[in-house]
């Protein structure tokens, strides 16, 4: 099996914010691990994962991402994190991050579900710019599990599919298909929305998961990601029953094609 594929990780992080406290990952360690695994580039963000958000907090998160981009300009690409509830301010922050700081897309977490009308102005803007939106997603397999997650507005494949039909020019990524509950349900929910991709990140390494993504969505809609589970992230693609051509698409070709679509 050919193992020296180019690899671009579409889902990584340099930091995150919890209840107003910024927690930074050791970027040097992140880059060292990526190098050892042959990961050429890391697409990173700094989301607010718990607690309220303010525009000041959001800008602080994006500055953390930008600092990592400056430190490793050949390795780290950044997503702009925003809260869609800030409407015009969120859109201006995306424009600042993309046009001035050189970021490549948008990261959304669980502040709002993908099917809520509040997100539409922001998503229409990203569609106009033709930049990808990576959405923190998952489908809790039971009410009890949903309560444990503590994420009442987490989006699943159906929510993202509804948004995709409302804004068919948007480029949407269902984040960590392998890290958010019932992945079979989510894959099936996304069958008929060609502007939605799934990333393979997450700590779940269930047999058949990658193959099911390819069967239902096509290899052209599957993106390699790790969400910091880096060894498992690489291994699940190398170990899946795929052709080398499919691995090339998943590891790097699909995301390169997406990034070329950006309108300046």
Describe this structure in words.
The chain is α/β, with parallel strands linked by helices and 264 residues long. Helices cover 41% and strands 17% of the residues. It is built from 10 helices and 11 strands. An 8-stranded parallel sheet has the order 1-4-6-7-8-9-10-11, with helices on both faces. A 3-stranded mixed sheet has the order 3-2-5, covered by helices on one side. Helix 8 links the parallel strand 10 and strand 11. Helix 7 runs parallel beside helix 8. The longest helix is centred in the first third of the chain and has 17 residues. It is globular.
Keywords:
264 residues; alpha/beta; 11 strands; 17% strand; globular
Give the helix/strand layout:
Layout: E1 8-13, E2 15-18, E3 21-24, H1 27-36, E4 41-45, E5 48-50, H2 55-71, E6 76-81, H3 88-100, E7 105-108, H4 120-129, E8 132-135, H5 143-149, H6 157-166, E9 171-174, H7 183-189, E10 196-199, H8 209-217, E11 222-223, H9 230-238, H10 244-259
Parallel strand pairs: 1-4, 2-5, 4-6, 6-7, 7-8, 8-9, 9-10, 10-11
Antiparallel strand pairs: 2-3
Helix pairs in contact: 7-8
